[in-house]
């Protein structure tokens, strides 16, 4: 595992050679040999590792543990009927539709249970579904997830686990500039260009919080700051009605000159400001109180699904499933949003995402900044979270019972030209897996 100080690199100037140096340094410091990895496995994990044929279990050479995690884990008792709000519009949360399609949850919930899924396109809609009790468990971004916990006069919502957390904001902090903008030397220089320009983002999103925060830090004042959904942003970038935008993947990849339609350049992530992103699993407190074992069983399904879809061996199937829900995007753009490296001069960092699942000091620090910012903007009434707003105790119990630790998995960012040609080639899968060694 990389130490926190090596998960990102301050500044964003450099060349292709500097990117290579970073990758080499990361490889030297972070590679874990198979022998060392084997010694760290529990007895059950070791059996799964060494008897790959047992229950279809495998372990990739890149250190992506995958096996019969559900062995002996299905909850006994009466069947339940719930709805879960998942986010196919957001690459970091794709595991929600993976769980829906592959029905991994059936391994963990009581036999006969029924789970329906909704697909909101923004965090505020997830919160509204929870308030209306249309949904009992949902997936949300960092800002919307924390905002939802301040709704207690209507319903008590708690943040109970993490969807993911990119150390450099790959997934939710993508800043786009129109293609006829100047060629900038760095992300910070690109941000200065937005002074006096027209920009847009979906208000209330994690992208919005980051965009506004960076503008304040850098002393940038856009001419107009518009509230637009991601579809409208795409149209307005295409027609050059706006100069730039903040968005999340896969939209960033889909419109980009790197892997998509070519109507915008990705000019910044959180890398230059040492800002990680995050997403939260949220749930109604009354449902948790009445069904704590069910919630824990559901979290176990989330754990297995997060580990499954980030295993490089499963990337091709992941993209096929995602394409059913995210229409109009190319396979290349979807792959890039999952695993692609944003190169210099707007270097995105070496790690695409971490599946932490539970809070650590880095995420708590991010959370503190988010809450303080939201309070300053009068989006929430206080800069202090309400008591118990974040409660990952069931997530920690689930991890312990499944004998896994945080991070569940860390996905390396791989250059497009190296990774994309291999991801769907069954004959070269081992070569593809090798690219993700860290």
Describe the protein.
With 438 residues, the chain is α/β, with parallel strands linked by helices. It folds into two domains: 4-168 and 277-333 and 347-434, 3-Layer(aba) Sandwich (D-Maltodextrin-Binding Protein, domain 2); 174-273, D-Maltodextrin-Binding Protein, domain 2 (3-Layer(aba) Sandwich), CATH 3.40.190.10. Helices cover 38% and strands 15% of the residues. The chain contains 18 helices and 14 strands. The protein has helices spanning 16-30, 34-39, 43-50, 95-102, 123-131, 142-148, 187-193, 206-218, 230-238, 251-255, 285-290, 292-310, 315-325, 331-339, 361-376, 393-402, 416-419, 429-434; strands at residues 58-59, 65-66, 81-85, 114-118, 137-141, 157-164, 174-178, 198-201, 224-227, 244-247, 264-268, 279-284, 351-355, 409-412. The strands form four sheets. It has a five-stranded mixed β-sheet, sandwiched between helices. Helix 4 crosses helix 13. It is globular, with a radius of gyration of 21 Å. The protein starts with 15 loop residues before the first helix and ends with a helix. Mean pLDDT is 86; it is low at 1-64.
CATH class of the largest domain: Alpha Beta
Q: Largest sheet, if any?
A: 5 strands, mixed
In round numbers, the mean pLDDT is 86
Contiguous helical run count: 18
End-to-end distance, in Å? 8 Å
Outline, from the CA principal axes?
globular
In CATH, the architecture of the largest domain is 3-Layer(aba) Sandwich
Low-confidence stretches: 1-64
| Computed Rg | 21 Å
Question: Helix amount, in percent?
Answer: 25-40%
Give me the CATH superfamily of the largest domain: Periplasmic binding protein-like II
Strand residue content: 5-15%
**CATH fold node name of the largest domain:** D-Maltodextrin-Binding Protein, domain 2
Structural class: alpha/beta
Number of beta strands: 14
Record the strand order, biggest sheet.
4-3-5-12-6
User: Total domains, how many?
Assistant: 2
């Amino acid at each position: 595992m990389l130490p926190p100080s090596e998960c990102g690199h301050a500044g964003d100037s450099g060349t292709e050679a500097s990117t290579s140096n970073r990758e080499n340094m990361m490889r030297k410091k972070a590679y874990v040999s198979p022998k060392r990895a084997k010694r760290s496995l529990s007895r059950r994990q070791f059996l799964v590792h060494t008897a790959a044929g047992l229950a279809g279990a495998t372990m990739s050479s890149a250190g992506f543990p995958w096996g019969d995690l559900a062995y002996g884990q299905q909850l006994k008792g009466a069947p339940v009927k719930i709805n879960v709000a998942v986010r196919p519009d957001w690459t970091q949360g794709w595991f929600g539709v993976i769980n829906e399609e592959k029905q991994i949850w059936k391994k963990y919930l009581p036999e006969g249970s029924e789970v329906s899924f909704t697909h909101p396109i923004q965090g505020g809609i997830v919160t509204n579904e929870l308030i209306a009790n249309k949904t009992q468990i949902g997936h949300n971004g960092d800002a919307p997830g924390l905002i939802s916990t301040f709704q207690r006069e209507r319903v008590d919502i708690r943040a109970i686990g993490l969807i993911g957390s990119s150390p450099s904001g790959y997934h939710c902090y993508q800043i786009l500039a129109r293609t006829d903008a100047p060629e900038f030397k760095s992300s910070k220089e690109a941000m200065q260009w937005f002074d006096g320009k027209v920009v847009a983002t979906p208000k209330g999103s994690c992208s919005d919080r980051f965009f506004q925060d960076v503008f304040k830090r850098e002393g940038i004042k856009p001419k107009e700051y518009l509230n637009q959904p991601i579809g409208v942003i795409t149209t307005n970038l295409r027609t050059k009605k706006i100069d730039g935008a903040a968005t999340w993947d896969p939209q960033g990849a889909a419109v980009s000159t790197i892997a998509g339609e070519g109507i915008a350049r990705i000019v910044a992530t959180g890398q230059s400001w040492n800002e990680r992103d995050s997403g939260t699993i949220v749930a109604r407190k009354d449902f948790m109180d009445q069904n704590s074992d069910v919630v824990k069983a559901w979290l176990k399904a989330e754990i297995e699904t997060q580990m499954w879809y980030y295993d490089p061996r499963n990337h091709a199937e992941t993209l096929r499933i995602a394409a059913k829900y995210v229409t109009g995007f190319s396979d290349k753009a979807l792959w890039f949003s999952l695993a692609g490296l944003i190169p210099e001069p707007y270097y995105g960092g070496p790690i695409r995402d971490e599946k932490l699942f539970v809070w650590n000091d880095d995420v708590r620090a991010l959370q503190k900044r988010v809450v303080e910012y939201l309070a300053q903007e009068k989006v929430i009434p206080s800069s202090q979270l309400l008591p118990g707003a974040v409660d990952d105790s069931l997530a920690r119990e689930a991890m312990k019972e499944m004998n896994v630790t945080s991070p569940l998995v860390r996905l390396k960012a791989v250059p497009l030209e190296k990774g994309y040609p291999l991801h769907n080639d069954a004959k070269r899968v081992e070569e593809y897996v090798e690219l993700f060694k860290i």
